[in-house]
Write a structure and sequence with these properties.
The structure is a single chain. The protein is about 50% helix and about 10% strand. It contains 30 helices and 14 strands. The strands form 3 sheets. A 5-stranded mixed beta sheet has the order 2-3-1-4-5, with helices on both faces. Strands 11-10-12-13-14 form a 5-stranded parallel beta sheet. The chain is globular, with a radius of gyration of 36 Å.
């Protein structure tokens, strides 16, 4: 599909109101590989649509968007990626976002919100029926001149909701964090227009988590930070808004100093000046709030900073440039706050005249509000009332909540000063009823909530990155051995008929010697690609170690796997290796086994690895399988000498080695007999004192005892629990050294690292590779063999603030040798899932209850079950918890039996204790 033709570059400078050229095709103003479409910010079309929407020129915005195909917005640079694949559909995401905002603004004009609720418009008295709107859309019905306008509004709302969902999905699929953040901020603005405050908060939190401080300065970064600051200010989170607007100014200043902006991005000085003016506006707004609260001394520094920033912006901006009037309004507002009313009045009147002509409604409302303030403080009540009433009307009409609240408060104060209670009261009632009017307590809670949500998102993102690092081979980008083992365990535990192929590059050392290690690495990457190309989407190719790969083939017999890997073997042998500078032959040998009942990962891999070496001994470049029926090595295959040394098995069926007698293997037990060394139980069971117990059986009488010294009962070995290494206060190098020492002393048990940094966890995974099990949420890792689970431990977490301690307890219990089930966020009234489904309470051998603020949860659970409970107090919660001592005392004074209490925040001790109880109970 070809997109519409591009506009000429001269078209990008047309004013929005120049209608003769408005309906021409979309601007293709950004030919570089980093921008997909002029509809993607900071593209020219995006800026024009945004300006039209902000000024409520909705017909203009619709005409600008009409040139974009609604099913597939035109995207430039579709083949700019190295692999030739199309980039993420950012053009589509932005098209849906802008159309959704247009529809939401039309809904506001009609008097409704996005969810169909009525606004303050007198004609809107009932909610919209969105289902009727969807039905109209599906039927293709269009309202005629006499149709019901409410049906059209319902259709707008239904379509807007669908567009927002589509845009979010497209943004989530993009790997451009800055574009995703910009889209989320725009969605937060849409939610504010719809008066969906909680949804706007969620979008703002996620956007903030994507705006890493290390992002390179750019126009888009400055705009996104500034837009997020505006959203936060509308949410009454002014301290956070100031922080992000300061970041915007720093990014703009850095971009101007480093000269990193593209020519199409405009003058860097103008970008910095506009960011300074926006920061000045927020400072003036904060100063005004302090004045309203009766604290002029605290307000004065904020007005002084606003004045300085406005003067800085005016000095940077050339005369007549965009942004001059905005800086003048901020400067005038700051002068009003500093008491220089006369100087401010003339400047603000000029700003009102200019903005009335240009059509910038938000700036006009701000100028009218500042002028009204100046006139009120000069005791010109009549003129002040006129300007403030105009500001209130504009702010209400165009969805400017902060300006609306400020205008209501100014009008209320004005008429109270004029002793006109009859006119002051309606303004006061409207001010108090405004849904964005938050008391200080709720603002503080929202600030905490914002920080907590942002931290959780960042932790989840860091955990995802850590998982990728822990489970991905850096050379081939395939899953590594650790992932293969975990995935194979999952397939076998599910009871599926799975095949395992072990693939080895023949004579790889000679390849390395011939072409060097870089050439050898290129060979491994090419073999990985050929394996991926020859396997199904459901198969998984992993790099095991060195030149060895494994292929997991779920729901596949050994015969089916043999046919698939034979195709891959032929593809490797026929590949043009000379293109990589490899002159020696490159072939692979493959061993295949199919799981049967009783097999585990070790036995299945040993079987496949054994027949791989049969393939090596019988001449290489061939595929060998074990029969899944008789558990023998291909009983119908010719003997070893059937193929001369060095010949290829690349004909029809794969060449295999001679049969092995079935009697050497147990058909029920699978491949277990291939392992020479039996698995030693990690923790010998306690004896019941019966006749067969060598330690507790009664000793024979003295006459029956043999001569010589009395027999000494054998010593019971110490529990094979992990050696714990605390990461707190230790460097990564110190932790690595302690892990090496622990592994050398106890190679049969894991070394457990708790409270480690992300860098330390990554270093452990890199050094010990498949021997490392990592849990980023618990900030813990285990290096070494993890025992098979016996018994079951349940971990209950009272709230999200206790999650890290709960994660630590769960990880330690699993590494110590038990099955673990976690249930999060069950504190307070959220205990209902345990009451309705008692599976966890009835099936667990021991419970760990982690709670801080809801410390009574342990006693509540203790009254519901007879399962032993380990209670862990945490230091989270309200300041009155005294660092967790409040929770500790609550748990210690509990009247419920069967509860032991760990020390504060010690998930490790709780996990070990619970695992000991569960292991012994399971015997």
């Amino acid at each position: 599909m070809t997109g519409p033709p591009a506009w000429d570059a001269s078209d990008t400078t047309d004013d929005v109101t120049s209608s003769p050229r408005r309906a021409r095709p979309a601007v293709l103003d950004s030919p570089g590989p980093g921008v997909h479409s002029a509809l993607v910010p900071p593209g020219a079309l995006h800026q024009r649509v945004t300006a039209a929407l902000a000024n409520w020129e909705l017909d203009d915005a619709e005409r600008l968007l009409s040139v974009v195909d609604p099913s597939s917005p035109y995207e430039a640079g579709r083949s700019t990626r190295e692999d030739g694949a199309a980039p993420p559909s950012l053009g589509r995401a932005w098209a849906d976002t802008l159309r959704a905002e247009l529809l939401v603004r039309r809904l506001r004009v009609a008097g409704f919100t996005l969810v169909g609720e009525p606004l303050d418009a007198p004609e809107a008295t009932e909610s919209l029926d969105l289902h009727a709107g969807v039905a109209d859309l599906l039927d293709g019905a269009e309202d005629g001149p006499g149709g019901d306008p409410r049906s059209e509004s319902a259709s707008h709302a239904a379509l807007a909701i669908a567009l927002v969902r589509s845009a979010k999905a497209a943004f989530d699929a993009s790997d451009d964090d800055l574009q995703r953040a910009a889209g989320l901020v725009r969605h937060a603005r849409i939610e504010l227009l719809s008066r969906r405050i909680d949804a706007a908060m969620d979008e703002a939190v996620e956007a903030a988590s994507l705006l890493d401080p290390g992002l390179d300065p750019s126009t888009l970064l400055v705009d996104t930070l500034g837009s997020l600051a505006g959203v936060l200010a509308d949410l009454e989170l002014m301290p956070l808004a100031l922080d992000y607007q300061r970041r915007a100014l720093e990014a703009a200043t850095a971009a101007a100093e480093q000269g990193v902006l593209a020519p199409d991005d405009g003058d860097p000085a103008v970008l910095a000046a506009r960011a300074a003016a926006c920061l000045g506006e927020l400072c003036a707004e904060l100063g005004e709030a302090l004045l309203d609260d009766g604290d002029p001394e605290s307000a004065r520094p904020h007005f002084a900073e606003a004045r300085r920033l406005a003067e800085q912006a005016l000095a940077q901006l050339p005369p007549g440039a965009e942004g001059v009037v905005a800086a003048q309004v901020v400067h005038g507002w700051a002068l009003v706050g500093l008491g220089e009313h006369a100087a401010a009045t003339g400047q603000l009147r000029a700003a009102v005249r200019i903005t009335s002509a240009t059509g910038d409604r938000a700036l006009l409302a701000s100028a009218l509000l500042a002028l009204g303030r100046a006139l009120r403080r000069q005791d010109d009540g009549r003129s002040a009332d006129e300007q403030l009433a105009k500001a209130l009307a504009l702010a209400t009409e165009h969805g400017l909540p902060r300006l609306r609240r400020a205008a209501l408060r100014e009008l209320c104060t004005l008429h109270a000063e004029l002793d006109d209670a009859g006119r002051a009261l309606p303004y006061l009632q409207a001010y108090l009823a405004d849904e964005l009017d938050r008391v200080d307590e709720r603002r503080t809670r929202w600030v905490e909530l914002f920080g907590r949500r942002k931290s959780l998102l960042e932790n989840e993102r860091a955990a995802g990155q850590l998982r990728r690092q822990a489970y991905e081979d850096p050379l081939t980008r395939l899953p590594n051995r650790r992932y293969a083992e975990a995935r194979l365990d999952g397939l076998l535990s599910a009871g599926s008929t799975s095949a395992l192929a072990v693939v080895d590059v023949d004579r790889f050392k000679s390849i390395n010697d011939a072409v060097g290690h870089p050439g050898g690495d290129a060979v491994l990457r090419a073999v990985a690609d050929l394996l991926l190309a020859g396997c199904r989407d459901t198969d998984e190719v992993c790099r095991w170690a060195g030149d060895e790969f494994v292929v997991l083939l779920p729901d596949t017999t050994a015969e089916q796997a043999e046919h698939a890997l034979e195709r891959v073997r032929r593809a490797v042998a026929a590949h043009d290796w000379a293109a990589l500078g490899v002159t020696v032959p490159v072939t692979i040998s493959v061993g295949i086994a199919s799981a049967t009942r009783g097999d585990d990962r070790r036995t299945l891999f040993a079987a496949a690895d054994g027949v791989l070496y049969d393939a090596k001994r019988s001449g290489r470049d061939r595929v060998v399988r074990l029969s899944a029926v008789t558990q023998t090595r291909a009983p119908d295959a010719p003997p070893d000498d059937a193929s001369p040394p060095g010949t290829s098995g690349g004909g029809g069926s794969a060449v295999t080695v001679g049969p092995v007698q079935p009697a050497t293997l147990d058909p029920v037990g699978g491949f277990a007999a291939l392992l020479a060394e039996p698995v030693r139980p990690l923790d010998p069971p306690l004896s019941a004192g019966g006749p067969g117990d060598p330690t507790l059986a009664p000793l024979p009488a003295a006459a029956e005892r043999p001569a010589g010294p009395a027999p000494v009962p054998p010593a019971r070995p110490a529990p094979a629990e992990p050696d714990v290494i605390w990461g707190v206060g230790r460097t990564t190098e110190q932790v690595l050294a302690l892990v090496r020492e622990a592994r050398a002393e106890h190679p049969d048990r894991p070394a457990l690292v708790v409270r480690a940094s992300a860098d330390t966890l990554v270093a452990l995974a890199g050094e010990h590779d498949a021997a490392t099990t990592v849990d980023a949420a618990a900030m813990s890792a285990a290096v070494g063999p993890i025992p098979e689970p016996r018994g079951r431990v349940g971990v209950l977490c009272a709230g999200t603030a206790d999650a890290s301690v709960a994660a630590e307890a769960a990880f330690v219990a699993r590494v110590t040798g038990t099955e673990v089930v976690r249930v999060d966020d069950v504190g307070g009234s959220r205990l209902r899932p345990l009451l309705t489904d008692r599976t966890l309470l009835d099936d667990a051998d021991c419970l760990v209850v982690v709670a801080g603020l809801d410390a009574s949860l342990a006693a509540t659970v203790g009254a519901m079950t007879d399962v032993p409970i380990v209670a862990v107090p945490t230091s989270t919660g309200q300041p009155g918890s005294f660092g967790g001592f409040g929770a500790l005392l609550t748990m210690l004074t509990s009247a419920s039996p069967g509860i032991v209490v760990s020390n504060i925040d010690n998930g490790h001790a709780a996990g070990v204790f619970a695992a000991r109880v569960a292991r012994r109970t399971a015997r």
